Amino acid sequence: MPLVSNSSSCLKNELRDFSEFVHSLRPGQIALALFEAIPDVLFWIKDRQSHFIYVNLAFSELVDLPHKEIVGKTDADIFPAEIARVFLGDDIRLREKGEPLMNKMELITRRAGGIEWRMTSKIPLRDNEDNIVGSAGISRRLDQREGHPLPAPYRSLANLVDFVHSHVNETLSVDKLAHEAGMSISTLERRFRTHLGTSPKRFILHAKIASACDRLLKTALSVGEIAESLGYHEHASFTRAFTSVMHMSPTAYRKYYQL
Fold this sequence. Notes:
By secondary structure, the chain is of the alpha+beta class. It has helices at 2-23, 29-37, 57-63, 81-97, 158-166, 174-181, 185-196, 200-218, 223-229, 235-246, 250-257, and strands at residues 41-47, 52-55, 101-109, 115-126, 132-141.
């Protein structure tokens, strides 16, 4: 009993010391300075109306706009309408539920070119009366192919990630992936959910759509030809799959990002 009591007392003292130290600092200098120094992590703060109040340098570079042209605007002013609706929908859920949105896997297109996989988390921001007055978010890059290793918990699936990317032009199935991994479908499902926050089926879909985005912007292939090159036998099924991930059709995507 005394050991528990002493431990609890020490923890309280540490928390009090930490709180006193933080309150003695000029507000904001730790977080903002560090987020400016991290090149692959996007960081932003929005007000209750979803206007950007602050974005870091990585965010500015992603959308290819200077900081001053982002602050005061919403996602609808920066991203295609279909994608902006998804981001703004997240903001509405944060305000209505007051709960954070953690580790949402997203495919993002850079305005300057290129595709990125990102893991995004968003939290509601509250004032001293506990009213939600805005939101803040971070989005970290997850890209096995460009030399940025996945975080430690993801490494156990690195071979499967490589397999999917290497066979993206084929008709991939969860059964085939489970066979390649030498595990049951239920185990594969569980590991993907635990370490990647998504299902194997959705992961395969994201890999194919990432390649589709790249081909739409870097080749003159028609949408039908791109669909066929990725193992889709029907143009319509490819369009539905693409739209489910990118929230816009392949044709609209090519038109918007090639401007």
